[in-house]
Amino acid sequence: MRTILVLLLVAMPALAQELEVQRALIQRDQQSAEFALQLRQSQETPSPHHLVERHRLENLSSQQLLQVGKHTPQELRPYERQKSADERVLLFAPPVVRARPAARPRPLPAQMPHAASPVGPAY
Fold first, then answer.
1. Is residue 115 part of a domain?
2. Secondary structure string (H, E, C) spanning 54-96
3. Pair 95, 40: CB distance under 8 Å
């Protein structure tokens, strides 16, 4: 009985530490996503949509930290972290690249009078 109690006392801090490590990894991923968003927005013209996008990312980040599973088995925690990363990636729309308008086509060269006819003589 005493050995079971000792094992439980030793295992509890390890489980709590594992949960904190998982939370720290998710926070690091969130910081990377926030930095990528700020970098992308700094290269675009400012718009009110940028602020909405930042708030949405912050809300998602806080929800993900609250959902870190205390009862999730250790084997499934990498999948939980990957799921969180996938949710953040879906928020970023691809950048809009506007193509330049096509130039007017150049006129065909004038046919020279001494050039051979492409169609043979008519009989």
1. no
2. HHHHHHHHHHHHHCCCCCCCHHHHHHHHHHHHHHHHCCCCCCC
3. yes
Q: Is 120 among the domain residues?
A: no
Contacts of 76 by beta carbon, 8 Å cutoff, 6+ apart: none
Task: Find tokens 């928020």 and name the residue.
Answer: 91
Q: Is 58 part of a structural domain of the chain?
A: yes
Highest averaged pLDDT of the listed ranges 12-16, 26-30, 89-93: 26-30
pLDDT tens digits, residue range 37-64? 888 888 888 788 888 888 888 888 888 8
Tell me if 44 is assigned to some domain: yes
Structure tokens at 59: 């809300």
Rounded Cα–Cα distance for residues 48 and 51 (Å): 6
The C-alpha atoms of residue 60 and residue 71 are separated, in whole angstroms, by 21
Which amino acid is present at 10? Answer: V
SS3 122: coil
